[in-house]
C-alpha cells in the first residue's frame, strides 16, 4: 500500500469513530453498556458468518472464471481478490479503487492482464445486474417506506438505480463492441505520444492492442459458456442474499424478533444503493444516517438502535478493510504457465 492509501485507511477509521461518537453523544453510557451485555451473540456470529460467506462466494466466482483461463489458480489467491476489493472500495470515493485493486492482485499471481480484466468485468457485470434486479424487487416492497423516512433522498435512490443501469450498458458495450473499445483506447492514449519517443509509444500501443484483443476474446468466450454464466449468476445471487440478511440477524441479536425479514432485506438493498451515491469513501455519514432513519421503526429502543448501527458498520465496512490489509500483505502463489 502507498503512503497515501495508509493515511486514507487510518483517516476513515478516525472519521468512523467521530461518527459513532456523534450518535452516542446524548446516550447514557451506563444504559449503552447494559444493553451491550444483553446482546444475543449467537445471532451476531450468524451475521458475521453471512459477511464471510459474502466474501467467500465472491472468491468462488473469481476462481470459477479464472479456472477456465489458467491452471493452478488457488483458492488462497482467489480469496485475496474480494478482500483487497473491500479495502480499496473502502478508502476511495465511489468505491473507484476496488477494480484496480483486484486487477493488481490477480496480475501478481501471474494471470494475464487481459484475462484478469475480462474476469473482473464479467464478474462486475453479473454483480451489478443482480443488484439492479434486487433493487427493482426491493423498490416494490420498500420504496414508499423509504420515501416517508428519507423524503428527497428517496429520489436519489432512483437516481442511483439509473447510474447502475447505465454502468452495466456501458460495460457491455466495452466488452462486446470491439471497434468502439479500440477507438476509445486509441484516443485516450494519444497524449502519451507527447511525452515519449515514437518507438516506445508504438511498442506501448501494440501492447495495449494485444491486451484489448485478449480481453475481447476472453469476454466473448466466457459469455458463450451458458453453464458457467448460470453458475456465476446463482452464486452471486446467494452472495448478495447473505449480505442483505446481515441487519436482520443483528436486529434479532438485540431482542426484536417480530420484524419482517422481507422488509428488512429490502431496506438493506436500498441502503446499499444509497451508499454508492455518496462520494466519501465507504459512503461514510450517508450509510449511518440511512441505517438510523430506516431501521428506527423496527428497533424502538434508541440505545439498541445505535448499537445495531455500530455492529452493522463494523461487520459490513471496517471488517472488510482490516481483512483487506492482511490479504494485501500476503505473498501470492505464482501460477506455473
- Please give the domain count: 1
Poorly predicted spans? none
The residue fraction in helices comes out at: over 70%
**Radius of gyration, rounded?**
22 Å
Termini, distance in Å? 27 Å
Characterize the structure shown.
This protein has 337 residues and is mostly helical. It is 78% helix and 0% strand. The chain has helices spanning 3-24, 29-36, 41-66, 75-91, 98-108, 113-150, 153-176, 178-188, 198-224, 226-244, 246-253, 261-275, 286-295, 302-329. α3 (41-66) runs antiparallel to α10 (226-244), α11 (246-253) packs across α14 (302-329) and α12 packs antiparallel against α13. The radius of gyration is 22 Å and the shape is elongated. InterPro entries: L-PG_synthase/AglD. Belongs to the LPG synthase family. The chain crosses the membrane at residues 6-24, 36-57, 125-146, 153-178, 232-254, 261-280, 305-330. It catalyses: L-lysyl-tRNA(Lys) + a 1,2-diacyl-sn-glycero-3-phospho-(1'-sn-glycerol) = a 1,2-diacyl-sn-glycero-3-phospho-1'-(3'-O-L-lysyl)-sn-glycerol + tRNA(Lys).
Amino acid at each position: 500500500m502507498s503512503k497515501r492509501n495508509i493515511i486514507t485507511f487510518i483517516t476513515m477509521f478516525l472519521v468512523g469513530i467521530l461518527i459513532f461518537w456523534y450518535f452516542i453523544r446524548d446516550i447514557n453510557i451506563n444504559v449503552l453498556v447494559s444493553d451491550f451485555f444483553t446482546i444475543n451473540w449467537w445471532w451476531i456470529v450468524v451475521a458475521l458468518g453471512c459477511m464471510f460467506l459474502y466474501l467467500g462466494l465472491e472468491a468462488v466466482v473469481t476462481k470459477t472464471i479464472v479456472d477456465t483461463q489458467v491452471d493452478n489458480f488457488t483458492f488462497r489467491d482467489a480469496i485475496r481478490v474480494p478482500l483487497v476489493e473491500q479495502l480499496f472500495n473502502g478508502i476511495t470515493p465511489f468505491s473507484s479503487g476496488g477494480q484496480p485493486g483486484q486487477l493488481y492482485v490477480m496480475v501478481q499471481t501471474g494471470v494475464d492482464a487481459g484475462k484478469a480484466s475480462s474476469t473482473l468485468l464479467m464478474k462486475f457485470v453479473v454483480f451489478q445486474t443482480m443488484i439492479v434486479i434486487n433493487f427493482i424487487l426491493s423498490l416494490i416492497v420498500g420504496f414508499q417506506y423509504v420515501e416517508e423516512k428519507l423524503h428527497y433522498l428517496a429520489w436519489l435512490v432512483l437516481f442511483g438505480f439509473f447510474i447502475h443501469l447505465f454502468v452495466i450498458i456501458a460495460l457491455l458495450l466495452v466488452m462486446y463492441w470491439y471497434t468502439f473499445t479500440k477507438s476509445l483506447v486509441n484516443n485516450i492514449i494519444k497524449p502519451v505520444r507527447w511525452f515519449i519517443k515514437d518507438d516506445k509509444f508504438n511498442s506501448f500501443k501494440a501492447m495495449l492492442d494485444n491486451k484489448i484483443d485478449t480481453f475481447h476474446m476472453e469476454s466473448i468466450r466466457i459469455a458463450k459458456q451458458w453453464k458457467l454464466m448460470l453458475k456465476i449468476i446463482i452464486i452471486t445471487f446467494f452472495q448478495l442474499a447473505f449480505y442483505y440478511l446481515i441487519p436482520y440477524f443483528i436486529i434479532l441479536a438485540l431482542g426484536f424478533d417480530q420484524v419482517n425479514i422481507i422488509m428488512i432485506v429490502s431496506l438493506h438493498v436500498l441502503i446499499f444503493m444509497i451508499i454508492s451515491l455518496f462520494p466519501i469513501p465507504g459512503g461514510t455519514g450517508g450509510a449511518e444516517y440511512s441505517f438510523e432513519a430506516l431501521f428506527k421503526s423496527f428497533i424502538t429502543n434508541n440505545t439498541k438502535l445505535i448499537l445495531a448501527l455500530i455492529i452493522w458498520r463494523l461487520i459490513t465496512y471496517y471488517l472488510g478493510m482490516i481483512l483487506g490489509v492482511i490479504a494485501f500483505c500476503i505473498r501470492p502463489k505464482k501460477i506455473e504457465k
